[in-house]
Amino acid sequence: MARIKAFRAMRYDTAKAGEISTLTCPPYDIISEEQRAGYIDANEYNIVRLELPAGENRYEKAGETLDEYLGKGVLAIDDTPGIYIYGQEFEFEGQKKQLKGIVTLVGLEEFHKGIILPHEETLSKAKADRYNLMHATGCNFSQIYSLYSDPSGSIAKSINAETDSEPIYEFTDKEAVTHKLWKCENQTVIDQLVDQFADKKLYIADGHHRYETAMRYRTYLVEFGFSDDETHPGNYVMMILADIDNDELVVLPTHRIIHSLEEFSLADTLKKLSADFDINPQSNLDSAVSAIESLDKQGEKAFVIYSKDERGTPLFHTLTLKNKDAMKEIFPDASDAYRSLDVSVLHSVALEKAFGIDEENMAAQTNLRYTRSMSAALEAVDGGNADCCFLLNPTKVWQIRDVAAAGEKMPQKSTYFYPKIITGLVMNKIV
After folding, report:
1. Distance (Å, rounded) from C-alpha 206 to C-alpha 146?
2. What is the predicted pLDDT for the residue at 227?
3. Among 133, 135, 369, 408, which has the highest number of CB atoms less than 10 A from its own CB?
4. Residue pair 283/318 in contact by the 8 Å Cβ criterion
5. 256: closest CA among 185, 191, 123, 352?
6. Pair type for strands 75-77 and 277-282
7. pTM of this prediction?
8. Residues 69-102: pLDDT tens digits?
9. Rounded distance between C-alpha atoms, residue 326 and residue 330, angstroms
10. Residues pairing with 278 in the sheet
């Protein structure tokens, strides 16, 4: 099924570019303008200038910057192909965790083949941005994050055997996440990994826009005379592949901020929501979050709504879905996995029915914003920049797998894998 192969990565020459810790950045879509400027201040060669170009003619400028870096030797393509092993060490809720995955090229496949499976809807604006960048640079600067299932642990054994040596890179970032990179050039191990993935399906965890962009870019290359067989690099995209059965995986919730409604009243909103939800006031944030966590363990669908009443008093309420069969009525043809998603319940039962926020409104973010930060969601309400916000429990890894396997897609921003994959350790020059 999944086709992987070794490649000659484009990487920084730290002797010319500086410390690797100053050359990397988080995923482009979570970087603010202020943060972007900070990365460049720390090192003028930081990957953010390529992955997140700014200003007029920014895509063309990214292409020129890439040529400059290659010309100076700041970036160079490895002499020999390999499969790269990326590791993260971090602490989460008082527990030390470790994750490892392989960075490799993966053969592009149409979604309908059921080999590479998406789990989230995409936005056209984001896809246009990523395509324009790929068109101007001919590169994958960041990896698509995908998951595979390997209950036997055979792939983990292959990977772990290659990480006994000193890593090529190792550093700890500002969020206390340690990043490590190794390179496997052992052809026997590479062949073994290729065989091990031959019967695997891949579930895209993060990078849906970039995957669809890679498919469009392949079509562009074929139209302009490149071959359409698997030997051409345009038929592959760079991914990092991690084990979905790994207990160390952390998925965080993405909270919803409701803003710019023509009219809003907390009392009226709660009245509308009461038709479908049991509503219970909570004394503070901690009690509210604890309540929905407990309800989740009981198999209930529950959220927190935070807003202010007519007197300006901040109030927390928990919402618990009354009718567990409601999602079958709304989505009669959907899988149980899709109907079990908290975000599906929130979007279809709460947001659309109580606020009139439909799919088109969500896609345009007319009245809806997303944030992984609970404090940012609360501050939006407290600062008068939002009418209310909804706090969610995280989506479960098995739901991601089962929704994708059913050929369905979750609503936008249903998952947030932590920690994010760092950008700038390994890149793929396609053409």
Report:
1. 7
2. 67
3. 133
4. no
5. 352
6. unpaired
7. 0.89
8. 999 999 999 999 999 999 999 999 899 999 999 9
9. 6
10. 320
Predicted confidence (pLDDT) per residue in 223-275, tens digit: 877 766 777 888 999 999 999 989 899 999 999 999 999 999 999 999 999 99
Both tokens assigned to 151:
């209950």
Distances (CA, A) of 24 to 49, 51, 132, 140, 330: 10, 10, 22, 14, 44
Write phi, then psi, for 402 (nearest 5 degrees).
Answer: -70, -35
154: number of Cβ within 10 Å = 12
Secondary structure of the chain as H, E, C letters = CCCEECECCEEECHHHHCCHHHCCECCHHHCCHHHHHHHHHHCCCCCHHHHCCCCCCHHHHHHHHHHHHHHHCCEEECCCCEEEEEEEEEEECCEEEEEEEEEEEEECCCHHHCCEECCECCCHHHHHHHHHHHHHHCEECCCEEEEECCCCCHHHHHHHCCCCCCCCEEEECCCCCEEEEEEECCHHHHHHHHHHHCCCCEEEEECHHHHHHHHHHHHHHHHCCCCCCCCCHHHEEEEEEEECCCCCCEEECCEEEECCCCCCCHHHHHHHHCCCEEEEEECCHHHHHHHHHHHHHCCCCEEEEEEECCCCCEEEEEEEECCCCHHHHHCCCCCHHHHCCHHHHHHHHHHHHHHCCCHHHHHHCCCEEEECCHHHHHHHHHCCCCCEEEECCCCCHHHHHHHHHCCCCECCCCCEEECCCCECCCEEECC
For residue 272, what are its two tokens? 């509308």
The pLDDT confidence band at residue 122, using thresholds 50, 70 and 90, is confident
- The predicted pLDDT at position 342 comes to 93
Say how far apart CA 406 and CA 398 lie, in whole Å: 12
Closest by CA to 203, choosing from 397, 431, 422, 379, is 397
Average pLDDT, the chain: 94
Per the listing, tokens 């849906």 go with: 208
C-beta separation of 169 from 155 below 8 A? no
What's the confidence (pLDDT) of residue 126? 85
- Kind of pairing between the strands at 416-418 and 388-391: unpaired
Identify the pLDDT of residue 34.
96
Do residues 5 and 104 make contact, with C-beta atoms less than 8 angstroms apart?
yes
Q: How far apart are CA 235 and CA 240, in angstroms?
A: 17
Residues in the chain: 431
Q: Name residues whose C-beta falls within 8 Å of residue 67's C-beta, 6 or more positions apart in sequence.
A: none
Nearest to 143 by CA among 186, 106, 111: 106
Query: What is each CA distance from 4 to 116, 153, 237, 371, in whole angstroms?
Result: 12, 18, 10, 34
pLDDT at 316 exceeding the cut of 80: yes
